[in-house]
Amino acid sequence: MGARIVEGGTYDGPFYRPTVLTDVTPAMPAFTEEIFGPVIPITVVDSEEEALALTNSRQALVNAVYTGDVDRGLAFAERVGCGLVQVNDAMGRPTGEDDLDEFTRRRFIGVQRAPVAYPY
């Protein structure tokens, strides 16, 4: 659809090399669908407001902001509407009980089994 592979895109056995795609547009599956692998699609925008509108137009659990100005990145991240926004970090690092609550859903699962007869 017009995206270009500038790095990676190959595999060695079961391992897929980290891949960078450029020229990705919002109409492409690389932009609209979650990619379960080490793939970074890059979409270029003309302004911070366009980037924010594009980011918030899609539902996501996690987004990442890469910037040379951390304060600007943090201000941008505050306006992104998703569960977790990372600034200059691709993986995130869970750090405690708050993260446990953020990333889990507690529930009780009850199981009732037929009575077991024990031979005595």
On the 0 to 100 scale, the average pLDDT is 84
Strands, total number = 7
Read across the widest sheet, the strand sequence of neighbours is: 1-4-5
Q: What gap, in angstroms, lies between the N and C termini?
A: 71 Å
Number of domains: 2
- Extract low-pLDDT stretches: none
Q: Which overall shape is indicated by the principal axes computed on the Cα atoms?
A: extended
Main structural class:
alpha/beta
Order of helix and strand elements from N to C terminus: EEEEHEHEHEH
Radius of gyration, taken over Cα atoms and rounded to an integer in Å = 21 Å
User: What share of residues is helical?
Assistant: 10-25%
Number of helical stretches of at least 4 residues: 4
The largest β sheet comes out as: 3 strands, mixed
- Determine the strand fraction and express it as a percent band: 15-25%
Structural notes for this entry:
The chain is an alpha/beta fold and 120 residues long. It folds into two domains: 1-44, no CATH class; 60-105, no CATH class. It has helices spanning 29-32, 48-56, 70-78, 97-103, and strands at residues 4-7, 11-12, 15-16, 19-22, 39-41, 62-65, 84-87. The strands form three sheets. It has a three-stranded mixed β-sheet, with no helix packed on it. Helix 3 (70-78) links the parallel strand 6 (62-65) and strand 7.
